[in-house]
Please model this.
Amino acid sequence: MKLFLDTADLNEIRELASWGVIDGVTTNPTLLAKSGFSFQEVLAQIFTIVDGPISLEVISEKADDMVNEAQGIVKKTPEKYRKNIAIKIPMTPEGLKAVRILTREGIHTNVTLVFSANQALLAAKAGATYVSPFIGRLDDNGQDGMVLIEEIMDIFNNYDIETEVIVASIRHPIHVIDAARIGADIATVPPEILRKMAKHPLTDNGIKSFLKDWEKVKK
Ligand code: E4P
Model:
């Protein structure tokens, strides 16, 4: 399973990319607002840090405006990084129209704010490169988000659909394990969850006792 980082914080991306486990990055306007970096700063630097798909979201609501925004992002990105752009498009009828146009232009898309298997199927049929079902927000709302991942994976596997599933809105490390067991293509993980995935108290205790015992034998 591929792991994407779900943040627009360039410092976090730089640090966590150095672990060698990050395959891409997803951002959205809320993550940008939290990061303290402007969209232009992120656009200028993010492709130099991670060599993999980078999702950048459009904020227009009409298909033509989304397409213009997406083309603007592509234009501002140096040619060598353009293959890594994934334009994040909200899952609406206008979004589907935009995905169809961008796909024909060879621009990768990530259809976001997906909350049902039918939405994922429509996004795939429109040509989306990725779909992003938001499991944490479903859990928050009293619905089991992971069931949605099972449904989408079943449907996509039944028809050999090439659109990749990004499990998004991850709230804890067990979400990542469940997504991997189901066979989802990608999990996009907030920095704090990636840190939790790396940590185990028995690892920390083990290091402590090895260091203590080393003191007894090092001379
Ligand atoms: C990623 O593509 C999504 O924008 C993100 O995972 C949403 O997460 P949230 O529900 O915690 O805001």
